Write a sequence for this structure.
């Protein structure tokens, strides 16, 4: 399947990366490593000698995928997390669906947890209201309500092919033509919200993002981010601010900053341990300046 270039960004990606690469064997394999010290690079060289290996400074997930796409030769990019793998026949099904939908820039499969339960991968673009429902736990009041759960695509049944606002970036089949039309990931997003911004820009340019459950993949989730969860949580908060500033303006981003500051201050008082510490650290950061200064 030489029309497909599979790009896997790694950072201390053992033990899952072998399964990820094995599931995409037969495509053009490209591994972009960001300084692994756990034997990831050595495993790739030994077990997948056909893979192109790009070693570079860690500039973030989006930058890693961009580096892989720059050296890829396929008409399609399969962006595959290092802790995710395709089920048999999934890639063929994704390709067939994408070829039948010429306006599809991104097609994502149904994601499963390792225990085979559904991993909800469809999301809604952030707005101030949607940020409020998440950070103030409003969505917990009515878990099946669309009004309170739009951020997590409440009411979106993962049972049939349908258009989505955006998909979590664990496993995405991406059309090269669409990428060339709008550009790659915005590398100002180090981690989190890079796929949100990308799908938004693609939609603004007339392309579509599709969820396609006839193809399935398994995603462990958090294999990299949990290694340094506190700073990664702050990156999540920063990503929300940057998205709102980029696409809705500084006023909405400032409203979201103040809202998240109140919410995370409260969370920091309620939660103990690493989680509470992460909330308190993020709240201090949000209090240290207005949105333009925080995003410099």
């Amino acid at each position: 399947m030489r029309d497909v270039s599979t790009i896997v960004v790694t950072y201390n990606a053992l033990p899952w990366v072998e399964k990820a690469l094995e599931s995409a064997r037969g495509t053009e394999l490209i591994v972009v490593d960001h300084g692994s010290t756990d034997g990831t690079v050595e495993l790739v060289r030994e077990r997948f000698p056909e893979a192109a290996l790009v070693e570079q400074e860690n500039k973030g997930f989006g930058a890693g995928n961009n580096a892989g796409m720059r050296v890829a030769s396929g008409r399609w990019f399969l962006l595959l997390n290092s802790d995710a793998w395709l089920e048999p026949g999934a890639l063929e099904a994704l390709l067939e669906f994408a070829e039948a939908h010429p306006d599809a820039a991104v097609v994502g499969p149904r994601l499963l947890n390792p225990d085979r339960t559904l991993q909800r991968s469809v999301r809604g673009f952030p707005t101030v209201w949607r940020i409020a429902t998440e950070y103030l736990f409003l969505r917990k009041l009515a878990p099946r309500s669309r009004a309170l759960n739009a951020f997590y695509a409440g009411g979106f049944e993962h049972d049939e092919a349908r258009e989505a606002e955006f998909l979590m970036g664990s496993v995405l089949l991406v059309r090269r033509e669409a990428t060339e039309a709008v550009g790659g990931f915005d590398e100002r997003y180090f981690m989190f919200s890079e796929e949100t911004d990308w799908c938004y820009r693609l939609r603004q340019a007339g392309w579509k993002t599709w969820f396609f459950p006839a193809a399935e993949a398994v995603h462990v989730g958090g294999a990299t981010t949990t290694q340094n969860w506190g700073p990664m949580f702050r990156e999540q908060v920063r990503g929300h601010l940057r998205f709102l500033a980029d696409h809705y303006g500084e006023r909405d981003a400032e409203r979201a900053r103040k809202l998240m500051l109140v919410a995370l201050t409260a969370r920091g008082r309620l939660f103990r341990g690493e989680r509470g510490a992460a909330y308190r650290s993020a709240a201090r950061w949000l209090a240290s300046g207005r949105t333009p200064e925080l995003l410099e």
